[in-house]
């Protein structure tokens, strides 16, 4: 019998990267949202960010690569602002 993680991985590989929600077992949908971060007293907003969203409970699943890219962009913007650019 497969465990939950194996079942999710199997489901992901067969359904265009949609996953089973770990909270309600709903099937996620690909959506694009806005996300605002607050760092060092400043706000940074990213629009049209792709996520997997569970329509049943609202849980959001983020792609790790996208999160790393947003964090890198925030760091660059802070460095530029601090340097007076």
Overall pLDDT, averaged? 84
CATH architecture label name = Roll
Number of helices, counting only DSSP H or I runs of 4 residues or more: 2
Give a short account of the largest sheet: 3 strands, antiparallel
Helix content estimate:
25-40%
Q: Which class do the helix and strand fractions yield?
A: alpha+beta
Low-confidence sequence ranges:
11-15
- Named CATH topology: Ubiquitin-like (UB roll)
- The Cα radius of gyration reads 17 Å
Strand order, main sheet: write it out: 1-2-3
The run of helices and strands is HEEEH
Please report the distance between the alpha carbons of the first and last residues.
58 Å
Q: Into how many domains do the coordinates divide? A: 1
Number of strands: 3
Range of strand content:
25-35%
Highest-level CATH class: Alpha Beta
What overall geometry do the principal axes of the alpha carbons give? elongated
Structural account:
Helices cover 36% and strands 29% of the residues. By secondary structure, it is α+β, with helices and mostly antiparallel strands. It has a single domain, classed as Ubiquitin-like (UB roll), CATH 3.10.20. Strands 1-2-3 form a three-stranded antiparallel sheet, with helices on one face. It is elongated and about 50 Å long. Residues 11-15 have low confidence and may be disordered.
